[in-house]
Design a protein that fits this description.
about 550 residues; alpha/beta; Beta-Lactamase; Alpha-Beta Plaits; TIM Barrel; 3 domains; eight-stranded mixed beta barrel; six-stranded antiparallel beta sheet; 19 helices; 22 strands; about 25% strand; globular; binds ligand C2E; binds calcium ion
């Protein structure tokens, strides 16, 4: 250190800093003693951005590392001008990298204070973080999602064990529709206040997006949380009076224990959201705990999801697509393939999609992965089409992708960019799509089908509303799930079912593809029904692109 700070100067810095902090509430404050290039920064900036300490030498250089590469040049120039005395302050906007890797847009205003000789002595100012501006929800008066993530980040840094619970109100749309939006707001207020009082000083309560709330508690045991939730649930199931109306609310809840600190805030949010969704969709609202099942190598699931999630941001490192052939039921010639994702790493080996897709589906990064899947599948399929001109590539969609308002434009754009013939792409949707608005789905499907993109209904018959969905959605192919044919050799009922599915497909002018064909005997039985195509281990397991290319010549040519 060329010119270490003296005790006097440090005291002066502190008292000036304190004065600064009072007037700059709601922002991060920094103050630099320019003689020593020694600064003090607000504690919350240190926590949010992962700075080394509140006190730093050469803080300008440290901060520069956190600034988005595209914004760094102008920041650097401004700091140079300030320290060389050419400029007396700055007022600029840049993106700064948080501890969790995401960027926040910040406005930074600073002034230079000169000494009696006119030499720059202090440089101080405030940084306003625009994404944290409103960490309180104005409707309910609780801390909001930003506040939630901020607090969670703090617990992570402190290695503090916490229980985190996400509680949401189901079918709230109906309340808005029947009684109006204002009334709906009143219900949310009432719910928020009740939850706040119910939790009391045993935890912190937040309002997340829409009708979802969260509780973070370090004192309550799992059992106690479970009991509290059950009380809350029965209270709102019995209903309450509001403006002369009796209102009943259905709740769902997910729970996660924070005791692993190598993961980031987003991963915890994703896993908590998954548990919540399981409660809502598959457990009629019973509290679902995120299951910390151990993998083969003793790593916990949440860490695995964290690492896989991070790979998305590292240029999809470790992800790859496998292809499973779809053959003609008539002559077993190649019609196409289904793209199935895998993730590999040295630590975890090959990870199958069931281990990560259901969790990541709800993650804000998932649409990016979805895009990568679509594009990679198109690039590979174009190469396959050179040797098999009629080849159709099937790509699985997740309902979270469809929910994105720009999904259709994104597909159209990818088709154009890759000069891909739309009629060689078939998008597979599953019954989980029933969670989406049918009109929205209808629009997407109709729009893309008008460009000749094909659609398949995956895992037909496994959910509740297959036929209902078919009635509303124009579909080219119905894929019959393996579970309906796996015992077809001895099970008369399964034969009848396949017959009925074929009948349904006929009504909706769709083709049938049977999945999970494993033996020649199964194939022969299935050939008695109007099935167009087969997919299954009898032909091939999903294999990587190169193996797939080598596999093609072993299949018969079309008759
Ligand atoms: P799915 O779409 O129903 O895919 C078929 C699954 O059945 C594949 O498992 C495949 O390996 C397996 N399978 C195929 N033939 C047979 C057979 O003859 N016998 C048996 N026992 N199994 C067979 P995989 O690759 O593990 O994929 C599991 C699920 O993960 C998929 O089910 C799909 O829902 C999801 N998934 C896979 N890739 C993607 C993707 O790129 N995007 C999305 N959103 N989901 C994906
Ligand atoms: Ca599929
Ligand atoms: Ca399937």
């Amino acid at each position: 250190m060329n010119n270490p700070v003296t005790d006097d100067r440090k005291k002066r810095l502190d008292s000036l800093f304190e004065a600064f902090s009072i007037v700059a509430e709601g922002t991060y404050v920094y103050l630099c003693d320019m003689r020593h290039d020694y600064s003090r920064w607000s504690k919350n900036a240190v926590d949010t951005f992962g700075l080394p300490s509140e006190y730093m030498y050469a803080a300008g250089d440290i901060w520069e590392e956190h600034i988005h590469p595209e914004d760094r040049g102008s920041y650097h120039k401004s700091i140079d001008d300030i320290f060389s005395g050419t400029d007396s302050g700055h007022d600029m906007q840049y993106r700064a990298r948080r501890l969790d890797g995401g960027y926040d847009v910040c406005t930074c205003r600073g002034v230079v204070i000169r000494d009696e000789n006119g030499i720059p002595e202090y440089f101080g100012g405030a940084i306003r973080n625009h994404s944290l501006q409103h960490s309180v929800d104005t409707l309910v008066g609780l801390r909001n999602q930003y506040g939630f993530l901020e607090d969670l980040g703090r617990y992570l840094i402190r290695n503090k064990t916490e229980k985190i619970c996400m509680i949401g109100i189901s079918k709230f749309v109906e309340i808005n529709e029947i009684y109006g939006y204002m009334f709906g707001n009143n219900v949310l207020q009432k719910f928020g206040r009740f939850l706040y009082e119910h939790v009391g000083n045993r935890g912190h309560v937040y309002r997340l997006d829409g009708t979802k709330f969260a509780v973070i508690s370090s004192t309550m045991s799992k059992e106690e949380l479970q009991d509290r939730y059950n009380e809350l649930r029965s209270h709102f199931r019995d209903g309450f009076e509001l403006e002369g109306k009796h209102i009943i609310l259905d709740l769902s809840a997910g729970l996660i224990t924070l005791d692993r600190f190598e993961v980031d805030v987003q991963t915890i949010y994703t896993c908590l959201h998954y548990a919540y969704n399981e409660s809502k969709v598959n457990n009629r609202g019973d509290l679902v705990e995120f299951n910390e099942e151990l993998n083969d190598n003793n790593k916990q699931r949440i860490e695995k999801i964290h690492v896989i999630r991070e790979s998305i941001t590292r240029d999809f490192e470790g992800f790859c697509l496998y292809y499973q052939p779809v053959v003609s039921a008539k002559d077993e010639s190649l019609l196409g393939a289904e793209a199935l994702i895998r993730w590999k790493s040295d630590t975890y080996g090959m990870v199958m999609p069931d281990q990560f897709i259901p969790f990541l589906e709800l993650d804000s990064l998932f649409p990016e992965l979805g895009l990568w899947i679509l594009e990679t599948a198109m690039i590979d399929a174009k190469k396959i089409m050179k040797v098999c001109p009629g080849f159709v590539i099937n790509v699985n969609l997740s309902y979270a992708q469809l929910e994105k308002p720009d999904f259709m434009d994104m597909v159209v754009d990818l088709l154009k960019r890759n000069d891909f013939p739309p009629d060689h792409l078939c998008l597979e949707i599953t019954e989980r799509c029933r969670l989406l608005d049918v009109d929205l789905l209808k629009n997407i499907i109709a729009g893309l089908r008008s460009m000749n993109v094909r659609f398949a209904m995956d895992d037909f018959g496994t959910g509740f509303s297959s036929i209902g969905l078919l009635k509303d959605l124009p579909i080219d192919t119905i894929k019959i799930d393996r579970s309906f044919v796996k015992d077809i050799e001895e099970d008369e009922l399964q034969k009848k079912l396949v017959g009925s599915f074929a009948h349904v497909a006929d009504i909706f002018s769709a083709n049938i593809c049977v999945e999970g064909v494993e033996t020649t005997n199964m194939r022969d039985i299935l050939r008695e029904y109007p099935v167009k195509s087969f997919q299954g281990y009898l032909y091939s397991k999903p294999i990587d692109f190169h193996s797939f290319m080598a596999f093609i010549p072993t299949l018969p040519s079309p008759e």
